[in-house]
Structure formats: structure tokens, C-alpha cells
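Posted in: Structural Biology > Protein-Ligand Complexes

Title: Requesting predicted complex, adenosine monophosphate in pocket

I'd be grateful if someone could produce the C-alpha cells for the following input. Sequence and ligand are given below.
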Amino acid sequence: MNEKTLFQKIADGEIPSDLVYEDDHCIAFRDINPVAPTHMLVVPRKPITRPDLIEEDDETLVGHLFTVARQVASQEGLSDYRLVMNNGAEAGQSVFHIHLHLLGGRPMTWPPG
Ligand code: AMP
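-- Reply #1 --
Done. Output follows.
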């Protein structure tokens, strides 16, 4: 059996997190190293390694991450925010279990670094 990812361990309560939302399909928690006043991660319980390994069967699940991000943003009182999913190390991915970053609470610049 493959070892659990860091985010599976968080989802299973084996590693503590500042959880803000959970359901049968995903969890959302505050990033341990925030880069904005609000920085949450929305993570499916299913350990898909990276965005380019999302399959057709995952489309509903991945869409659900956006719905949850909207709910969490609303709970935080955010109307404007950025959603980011990094694909691969060069793009900034460091945890190989897909996750949507929800960033808000300050003006964002474009393009990202
Ligand atoms: P990425 O670099 O896109 O893969 O994002 C991974 C994110 O996970 C980073 O922003 C980290 O700060 C965050 N992170 C790593 N470990 C933890 C943890 N134990 N609890 C919460 N966030 C974490």
C-alpha cells in the first residue's frame, strides 16, 4: 500500500491542522505558512498527485473544490480572492496531493512570480 500523503494524514486527523471546512469529499484548512492574510488550502480526500493527473472521473470532485472555496471565502468575508493550483515543482508545487490555494485579504499582483 502506498504511504499516505501529508494531506491525507491531515484529512485523517493524524497531523493537526486549523480546519475550516470538511465534508465526505474534501477538507479546507489554513496554510501553515500563509502568504496572504487569508491563505487556505482546499484539498480532496482522494490523493490525486498533481493537476495533470486529474481524470475525467474526477471532474465533479475538482469542481466541488471551487464550490467549497467560494463558501470558505464567503465565511472569511472575502469577495475578491485568488485561487491557484500549482502543477509540478517548477510551478511551485511542493506537496504532491492536489490542492487549491485560496488567497485573499490583500491586493494581488499579476503576473505571479
Ligand atoms: P504547493 O507548494 O502548491 O504544493 O503548496 C503546498 C502548501 O502546503 C504550502 O503553501 C505549504 O505552506 C502548505 N503546507 C505544508 N505543510 C502544511 C501543514 N502541515 N499544514 C498546513 N499547510 C501546510
